[in-house]
Write a structure and sequence with these properties.
The chain is an all-alpha fold. The chain has five helices and no strands. The chain is globular. It has a single domain, classed as Serine Threonine Protein Phosphatase 5, Tetratricopeptide repeat.
């Protein structure tokens, strides 16, 4: 199992990379997040990881990847009974995509 510090570092790396137009670095960080969330017993942490992947995919304009990651996060939030997090995630889905740095 990986620490939440490692997961948050990967999440930060993915977001910073995509914001600076470094798609390959962002995808590598997302791969690390995906590996970590598949190997954790913490459902909310896994769902948060999938939300990070959804954000990065959205910033990369990969809506298929965004939707898949988002759906996985929602599934996990619902399984845990986290209604507030589910509602927050569903609101996020309808917000405009933030611009990236080019």
């Amino acid at each position: 199992m990986h620490s939440s510090w490692a997961e948050s570092t990967s999440a930060a790396s993915a977001i910073v990379a995509v914001r600076h137009g470094k798609a390959d670095e962002a995808r590598q960080a997302c791969a690390e997040i995906a590996y970590n969330v598949q190997n954790t017993e913490f459902i909310i942490g896994a769902a948060d990881g999938w939300m990070t992947i959804a954000l990065v995919e959205r910033l990369l304009r990969n809506m298929v990847g965004c939707d898949a990651a988002f759906d996985r996060a929602i599934e996990l939030y619902r399984a845990k009974g986290a209604t507030a997090l589910t509602a927050q995630a569903e609101r996020w889905r309808n917000e405009p995509v933030p611009p990236t740095v080019t």
